[in-house]
Write a structure and sequence with these properties.
The complex is a heterodimer of chains A (114) and B (111). Chain A has 114 residues and is mainly β. Helices cover 0% and strands 54% of the residues of chain A. The model of chain A has no long low-confidence stretch (mean pLDDT 94). By secondary structure, chain B is mainly beta. Chain B contains no helices and ten strands. Chain B has strands at 10-14, 19-24, 32-38, 45-51, 56-58, 62-67, 72-77, 86-93, 100-101, 105-110. Chain B is globular and about 40 Å long. The chains are: A mainly beta (114), B mainly beta (111). The A-B interface holds A 4, 33, 38-43, 45, 48, 56, 91, 93, 97-108 and B 3-6, 31-32, 34, 36, 42-46, 49, 89, 91, 93-99, 101, 103-104.
């Protein structure tokens, strides 16, 4: 298995632009997580899907952030409009079940908003 | 004002020494624990896990110890190598709930 796949690996955009991050989870995993990592705040959970349904989005910073999972093999995290404080590394992770199983992380997308 | 980053605990060891990284968890109901390794520029990588019905589990050069009485988890790395330099996270979990990650420990291995 190729593991969790994320694209793009790096994104540089200007403030106000829309940013879309993409994730393909490991085949057979039914839970998907989006995280944000910064030096200031460490690893933060943004949203969690189980069987393609958003279960907990309490970590989503504000309405500028949205996430979708249209099918078991694809998810997107969108920021619109982007702001400099959104600059971070965004990780997608997947796991076999809802708790009680290890998460497997993608390589991350490094987002820079200027 | 000056921004302050997340200051991680740091463990510095010499190549060839054994390393012990500690983690205190918060939820006495947690029944599954995982250690992750995050190298610079990469995502966290699963190393080893342990369930609450065990107090020790061994992998290749790594051993995880679980003390449920004091809610403490440790990761032991034998014969530490420069490639082991990374940030190590512990995570606690239980069925039906989202894993909770610790803040991480930075391991620096000096050749």
């Amino acid at each position: 298995d190729a593991g969790v796949i994320q694209s793009p690996r790096h994104e540089v955009t200007e403030m106000g632009q829309e940013v879309t991050l993409r994730c393909k989870p490991i085949s057979g995993h039914n839970s998907l997580f989006w995280y944000r990592q910064t030096m200031m705040r460490g690893l933060e959970l943004l949203i969690y899907f189980n069987n393609n349904v958003p279960i907990d989005d309490s970590g989503m910073p504000e309405d500028r952030f949205s996430a979708k999972m249209p099918n078991a093999s694809f998810s997107t995290l969108k920021i619109q409009p982007s702001e400099p404080r959104d600059s971070a590394v965004y990780f997608c992770a997947s796991s076999f079940g809802q708790g009680g199983y290890a998460q497997y992380f993608g390589p991350g997308t490094r987002l820079t908003v200027t | 004002g000056e921004s302050v980053g997340l200051h991680l605990p740091t463990l510095s060891v010499q190549e060839g020494d054994n390393s012990i990284i500690n983690c205190a968890y918060s939820n006495s109901a947690s029944d599954y624990f995982i250690w992750y390794k995050q190298e610079s520029g990469k995502g966290p990588q699963f190393i080893i896990d342990i369930r609450s019905n065990m107090d020790k589990r061994q992998g290749q050069r790594v051993t995880v110890l679980l003390n449920k009485t004091v809610k403490h988890l440790s990761l032991q790395i034998a014969a530490t190598q420069p490639g082991d330099s990374a940030v190590y996270f512990c995570a606690e979990n239980m069925m039906g709930y989202i894993p909770t990650f610790g803040r991480g420990t930075s391991l620096i291995v000096h050749p």
